Amino acid sequence: VQLVESGGGLVQPGESLRLSCAASGFTFPINRCDMRWFRQAPGKGLEWVSIITRGGTTNYADFVKGRFTISRDNAKSTLYLQMNNLKTEDTAVYFCAAGLARGQGTQVTVSS
After folding, report:
1. Span 28-43, pLDDT tens digits
2. Banded pLDDT at 99 (limits 50, 70, 90)
3. Distance between CA atoms of 75 and 12, rounded to whole angstroms?
4. Handedness of CA 16, 78, 65, 101 (dihedral sign)
5. pLDDT in tens, 71-83
6. CB-side exposure of 65: number of CA atoms within 13 Å?
7. CB 6 within 8 A of CB 20
8. How high is the pLDDT of residue 108?
9. Cα(63)–Cα(56) distance, integer angstroms
10. Are 9 and 108 a contacting pair, CB within 8 Å?
């Protein structure tokens, strides 16, 4: 089982990024999984960011609501996180998770 995040980078406040999380090695279709994004800022604990259920229901942490959008492409076994109007406080390593599996993360840095 492998989850590989990509799409992170350095952007200025107000800009956007789109993160991807490619899943492979699952013994069942990925569309049976609820999938999540988490993040960890420097010196802080792991924060839950968003979830998309196997049924397509989405939910967000208050600090990203209205700015981030989670989506999934089950045919491509890929999870996405569209991040708009990024703030300096969004700087963190972003991880995707499905079941007990978690990726290695992708760094997002928001700085002027």
Report:
1. 677 788 999 999 999 9
2. confident
3. 33
4. negative
5. 999 889 999 999 9
6. 6
7. yes
8. 98
9. 21
10. yes
